[in-house]
């Protein structure tokens, strides 16, 4: 018979569990060991199923994974909500609770643990059997897809798929079938394989916008609004760079979204930083891990061929965006990265969209400096919203000056090299009046051409 326990919620029945001790005189003494608590009203099979389906998938999977759980496991999962959750699930008929005897009048004893009810155990067994059947079917389909994808970046991942959970196997199957049909990254695979490793390409292919797919390894850089971590993709094993906003402040997220947008439009360009995966909310994204930055290579970049490589790469990385109306507005050594032996333009966070596509009208205010002092063109502190390609050309000119002189540029002061030819090029690129500079990257390349061949 149930025992009334003060403080126990009304829809629950408590059944005492005793240990019997036999006295010397032959009588018995009963020691209350614990209370088994269960729902007073037993739910129907349909009600039990509805309750289980209403739980978040992760919580439902955790609940049904083990028939018996100790209090420590429950408290680790639910923290301060552990006891309330236990009572709620017990009332719903999902679990039976074990409590210690009451320590104080009017309060139930501490929770020891719980055991799944028969209905939930039966549900869990059925789910496991169904999952095993689904897993066998998906594994067979993955093997078929693998046979069709010889020498494809996904093959190592497919070979390791046996160790994956069914959720990820299902996702991988969709990706693999699309890859086998040629419908994913159609027409771009050959191009992408020239400047992404197979591991990076596999990470791009299986991207599913979930931060939990990446395990941080170490911090690479910390700025005013974002932190960059080296991270390992848990399934491809590829080490990548994950950039995450330090807060969900509107300004920080706007910048991140702008970087994602540029990569979506121009990410196939070999000299624009590609993005492999990104949050749907825009508060984090994934890039290939850079080998180095221009800032760390300034001495080596003074060599003629090295200088040509970085300048031509930056100009090439700006060409298409400029043609579409995008202006970077923050070209500087820290934002030029080397991946797989090539220089790429990165960090378009304060870039200017084409006319009429401003995300927040009025956000760019006259009199506020955009860019980095010394590299930013004078007009970027006057009215950055009106800046054109000439603003980026100014920054490239200052970059060349910084490389060749080894000095840090000052605001609105051209950093002119001693070499006469480069002095004339940098002077032209950094003229105070934008109209006096080369009007586009092609004109600037023409200015540099004699020096490449000189």
UniProtKB/TrEMBL annotation:
Keywords (A to Z) from UniProt: ATP-binding, Kinase, Nucleotide-binding, Serine/threonine-protein kinase, Transferase
Protein name (record): non-specific serine/threonine protein kinase
* Enzyme class at the top of the EC tree: transferase
- Which residues are in the Protein kinase domain? 214-454
Give the source species: Micromonospora carbonacea
Q: Which InterPro entries match?
A: Kinase-like_dom_sf, Prot_kinase_dom
Q: What CDD domains does the annotation carry?
A: STKc_PknB_like
Q: Report the domain of life of the source organism.
A: Bacteria
Q: What is its EC number?
A: 2.7.11.1
């Amino acid at each position: 018979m149930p025992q009334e326990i003060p403080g126990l919620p009304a829809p629950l029945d408590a059944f005492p569990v005793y240990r019997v001790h036999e006295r010397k005189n032959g009588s018995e003494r009963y020691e209350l060991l614990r209370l088994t608590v269960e729902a007073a009203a037993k739910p129907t099979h349909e009600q039990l199923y509805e309750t289980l389906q209403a739980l978040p998938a992760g919580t439902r999977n955790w609940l049904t994974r083990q028939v018996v759980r100790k209090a420590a496991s429950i408290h680790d999962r639910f923290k301060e909500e552990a006891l309330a959750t236990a009572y709620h699930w017990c009332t719903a008929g999902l679990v039976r609770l074990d409590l210690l005897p009451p320590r104080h009048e009017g309060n139930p004893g501490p929770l020891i643990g719980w055991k799944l009810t028969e209905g939930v155990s039966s549900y869990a067994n059925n789910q496991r059997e169904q999952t095993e059947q689904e897993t066998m079917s998906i594994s067979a389909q993955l093997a078929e897809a693998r046979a069709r994808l010889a020498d494809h970046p996904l093959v190592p991942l497919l070979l390791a798929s046996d160790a994956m959970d069914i959720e990820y196997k299902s996702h991988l199957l969709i990706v693999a079938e699309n890859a086998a049909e040629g419908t994913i990254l159609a027409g771009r695979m050959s191009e992408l394989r020239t400047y992404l490793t197979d591991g990076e390409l596999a990470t791009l292919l299986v991207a599913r916008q979930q931060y939990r797919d990446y395990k941080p390894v170490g911090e690479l850089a910390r700025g005013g609004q974002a932190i960059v971590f080296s991270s390992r993709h848990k399934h491809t094993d590829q080490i990548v760079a994950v950039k995450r906003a330090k807060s969900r402040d509107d300004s920080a997220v706007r910048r991140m979204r702008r970087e994602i947008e540029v990569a979506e439009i121009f990410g196939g360009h070999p000299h624009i930083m590609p993005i492999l995966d990104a949050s749907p909310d825009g508060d984090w994204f994934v890039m290939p891990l850079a080998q180095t930055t221009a800032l760390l290579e300034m001495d080596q970049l003074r060599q003629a061929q090295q200088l040509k490589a970085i300048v031509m790469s930056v100009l090439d990385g700006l060409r298409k965006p400029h043609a579409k109306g995008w202006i970077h507005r923050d070209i500087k050594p820290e934002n030029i990265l080397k991946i797989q032996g090539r220089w790429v333009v990165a960090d378009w966070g304060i870039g200017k969209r084409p006319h009429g596509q401003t995300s927040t009208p009025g956000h760019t205010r006259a009199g506020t400096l955009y860019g980095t002092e010394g590299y930013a063109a004078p007009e970027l502190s006057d009215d950055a919203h009106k800046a054109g390609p000439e603003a980026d050309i100014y920054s490239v000119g200052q970059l060349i000056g910084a490389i060749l002189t080894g000095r840090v540029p000052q605001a609105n002061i051209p950093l002119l090299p001693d070499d006469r030819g480069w002095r004339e090029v940098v002077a032209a690129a950094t003229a105070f009046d934008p109209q006096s500079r080369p009007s586009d990257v092609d004109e600037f390349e023409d200015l540099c051409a004699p020096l490449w061949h000189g």
